[in-house]
Amino acid sequence: MAIKDRMSGNEAVSYAIRQINPDVMPAFPITPSTEIPQLVSAYIANGEMDTEFIPVESEHSSMSAAIGAEAAGARSLTATSSAGLALMWEELLLAASNRMPVVLALVNRTLSGPININCDHSDGMGARDTGWIQIYAENNQEAYDNFIQAYPIAEHMDVHLPVMICQDGFITSHAVENIELLEDKTVKSFVGEYEPKEYLLNPGKPIAVGPYSASGYVMEAKKNQEIAMENAKDVILSVAKRFGKISGRSYGLFEEYRTADADYIMVLIGSAAGTAKQAADDLREKGIKAGILKVRVFRPFPAKELAEALKNCKMAAIMDRCESYNGNGGPLGCETDAALFRHKIAIETVNYIYGLGGRDFTVDDVYAVFQEMEDAVLHGKKVEQYQYIGLRK
């Protein structure tokens, strides 16, 4: 039975952690994720869970401790944001390459400089090629739901990779919304117990974790890691299907909103999708066939599926809340264009950068993007590629 409540995104993720009751949580505070370890440690102090909480001296240490605990056979997690994720850089790659199903609650915040504590996706996108599965939330409900699905994905024998559950800093992490929670016993049954087949503290079956690998073996290890990432697509969908049965909420690799007959589609990630959906509804009332495609799973990137979803529109706007500094576009823009080209889908696209450092992204901004697409398709007006939205002149 659903439990109706009101929670911030950080509260929702912390509540999910309490329900799962993992074995070990090392953590170091950093805005805007600080509330997650704070709330979890309060649950532990109040006797509501028996997770071993480890206060550490840095985010590098928190991921190191999570990897160590996971290698020893314990279900582990941590939480961080921004520079904290950057400080974990070496350990992120170790967690993935050593096939540790650690879960990380990432509250997205811009990376310096200049110093800023507000939302963009530069932290998560900066770690996009570290070998972690990445799942992004639009709202507090999705942050809660995604976290509950994380361990069944990470620990699946065809995957065994770490998972980042991402939500937008302050926009969802601190804003309070209505939410439907699952009962504790339902979550516990869905997630199950962690029973690793190989771990350091398994008596009588010694193994090595993270040994030196000679050149003759590294490529095979990397290929197996890539196969696991490919396998993750089907596992993510399978877990989402199971989750739908207990929650009534359905999830896929991405969400399509009014795209079936759309002439123009906006592709984006995270909380801005809510703004875009409202604008699309408004534009539909004016006769403009606008649609929204919200990417939920960025790693593994759903290239084939996304190309198929866009093939019938006349033009797509691809929105990045992150700068790649490659002189050619943002990460979502580049990967979407590559997916379309590889699968021979010949539609026009334009890449926009928006919302850096917490810059507002409004329904008027969405209207303007769709107007540019319509002008390009109907009147042949050239649209500037790789433009910033809301940039002060």
UniProtKB/TrEMBL annotation:
Keyword Membrane: no
The Pyruvate:ferredoxin oxidoreductase core domain, residue ranges: 262-366
Gene3D superfamilies on file: 3.40.50.920, 3.40.50.970
Pyruvate flavodoxin/ferredoxin oxidoreductase pyrimidine binding domain span: 16-240
Alphabetically ordered keywords of this record: Oxidoreductase, Pyruvate
Superkingdom of origin: Bacteria
GO biological process: carboxylic acid metabolic process; response to oxidative stress
Gene Ontology molecular functions: oxidoreductase activity, acting on the aldehyde or oxo group of donors
Keyword Oxidoreductase recorded: yes
Record SUPFAM superfamilies: Thiamin diphosphate-binding fold (THDP-binding), TK C-terminal domain-like
Entry's family note: Belongs to the pyruvate:ferredoxin/flavodoxin oxidoreductase family.
Protein name: Pyruvate ferredoxin oxidoreductase, alpha subunit
